[in-house]
From TrEMBL:
Superkingdom classification of source: Bacteria
InterPro entries for this protein: Metallo-B-lactamas (IPR001279), RibonucZ/Hydroxyglut_hydro (IPR036866)
Protein name per Swiss-Prot or TrEMBL: Metallo-beta-lactamase superfamily protein
Residues in Metallo-beta-lactamase domain copies: 35-229
SUPFAM superfamilies: Metallo-hydrolase/oxidoreductase
SMART domains assigned to the protein according to its UniProt record, in alphabetical order: Lactamase_B
């Protein structure tokens, strides 16, 4: 297991050869924090994997360009069009004139409610497609859990890193670079919580069919798992995470927070909740 010498949000850290996570996180009271990560592969033809959240646009762009010169970026792989993944897509494409956007027909349509994606810069990548990026082949694959129909994960055949998108999402007591900092109980509870949160439709699953999907995804052979909402998984935690995923169909549904919970939190705050503030401009 690698050791991350320092860890700060929006400071990229290396997880494999020429592969970096760009970390961010959101506080999510009362369950802790959720990672909000992206990834960059600085190979012969550099790849950005997702484009971060608009809430930290300037800082995210600065972090990304600390890993790779935007003029060198050849590919932007968009896993799906949710805002935490696509939120800085247009600024990224503007800064990276030599980049091709790897996306899907449906993602472009879903983003059209807010912006027009330059279709002349797009290449469609669907489930099972491979992309030759010079010194490695990337494989697009639908992960077992997802919260958007366009979702495709990305497996790097050179480093055996998989970007699992929203699968393996977990809450954390505090932002951290690697899952190894969690206890066994925290790890299990986090995987079950994140999975149920991201994909509440898991209750509809045929457990046998779902486990076959998990097996198929595991057969990619990932040795390191990075994802938007999880610290990096490596070592024994990779197989354990897949095992927990196979158990998910047997876990009772998560009971959502209710208005009574919100009332209690507001009472506890005793008027100390500040009035709603506009966020600083994200441009
Ligand atoms: Fe999502
Ligand atoms: Fe996400």
């Amino acid at each position: 297991m690698t050791t991350i010498p320092t860890f700060n949000l929006l400071e990229p850290y290396r997880i494999a050869e020429e592969t970096f996570v760009i970390p961010w996180a959101l506080e999510a009271p009362p369950v802790g924090h959720f990672p909000m990560n992206s990834m960059a592969i600085r190979g012969a033809e550099p790849v950005l994997v997702d484009t971060g959240s608009p809430a930290v646009r300037a800082q995210w762009l600065e972090a990304a360009w600390s890993v790779v010169d935007p003029l060198d970026v050849k590919w932007v792989f968009l896993t799906h069009d949710d805002r935490d993944h696509s939120g800085n897509l247009l600024p990224v494409l503007a800064a990276c004139p030599n980049a091709t956007l790897l996306t899907t027909w449906f993602s472009i349509g879903r983003m059209a409610e807010e912006w027009e994606t330059p279709i002349n810069r797009c290449r469609f990548v669907i489930e099972g497609d491979t992309v030759d990026v010079g010194d490695r082949t990337l494989v697009a694959k639908r992960p077992p859990l997802y919260d958007n129909p366009t979702t495709r994960a990305l497996f790097d055949t050179k480093t055996s890193v998989v970007w699992s998108v929203d699968t393996f999402a977990t809450n954390l007591p505090a932002p951290m670079p690697e899952i190894g900092e969690l206890t066994d109980d925290e790890f299990r509870d986090g995987q079950f919580f994140g999975g149920r949160l991201v994909s509440p439709w898991y209750t509809l699953l045929d457990a046998g069919k779902f486990r076959a999907v998990v097996d198929d995804f595991q057969r990619l052979g990932a040795e390191v798992v990075a994802g938007c909402h999880s610290p990096v998984l490596n070592g024994h935690r990779v197989d354990e995470a897949f095992d927990l995923l196979r158990r998910l169909p047997d876990v009772p549904p998560w009971q959502e927070f209710t208005q009574a919970d919100l009332d209690r939190w507001m009472d506890a705050a005793e008027g100390s909740v500040p009035p709603e503030q506009p966020r600083p401009s994200a441009t």
